[in-house]
Write a structure and sequence with these properties.
- This protein is an alpha+beta fold.
- It has one domain: YaeB-like fold (2-Layer Sandwich), CATH 3.30.2310.
- It has 2 helices and 5 strands.
- The protein has helices at 10-16, 21-33, and strands at residues 5-8, 44-45, 51-56, 59-66, 71-79.
- It has a 5-stranded mixed beta sheet.
- Strand 4 and strand 5 form a beta hairpin.
- It is globular.
- The mean pLDDT is 89.
Length: 87
C-alpha cells in the first residue's frame, strides 16, 4: 500500500502552538500513523462531510483523505469540549 503525504492547514498548525508540548508530540505521532492507514480502526467519518475524526487523549483531530493524490490533510485539532462548538 502506498504511503500518504501529510499536509497541515495553517489553522491546524496555529492551534498546535497553544497545546502543551507533550500533547503536541503525541498528536503528531498519531498523525504520522495516518500515512500508512488513513482510516484506522477507531476513526469515525463525520456525518455529512468527507472528513474523519480520530482521538488522542482529550484531543480530537479532524482530517480529510484524498486517495487519488495520496494526501491526508489535517484540518482541525482541539480539546473535545471545544472542537465541535460552532463559532
Amino acid at each position: 500500500m502506498a504511503r500518504h503525504e501529510l499536509v497541515f492547514r495553517k489553522s491546524f498548525s496555529k492551534v498546535l502552538r497553544s497545546i502543551p508540548k507533550k500533547d503536541v508530540t503525541r498528536i503528531l505521532r498519531r498523525m504520522k500513523t495516518l500515512q500508512e492507514d488513513p482510516r484506522p480502526m477507531g476513526s469515525e467519518r463525520l456525518s455529512g462531510q468527507e472528513r474523519y475524526r480520530i482521538r488522542k487523549g482529550v484531543y480530537r483531530i479532524i482530517y480529510e483523505v484524498t486517495d487519488k493524490l495520496l494526501v491526508v490533510t489535517a484540518v482541525r485539532v482541539g480539546h473535545r469540549k471545544h472542537l465541535y462548538k460552532c463559532s
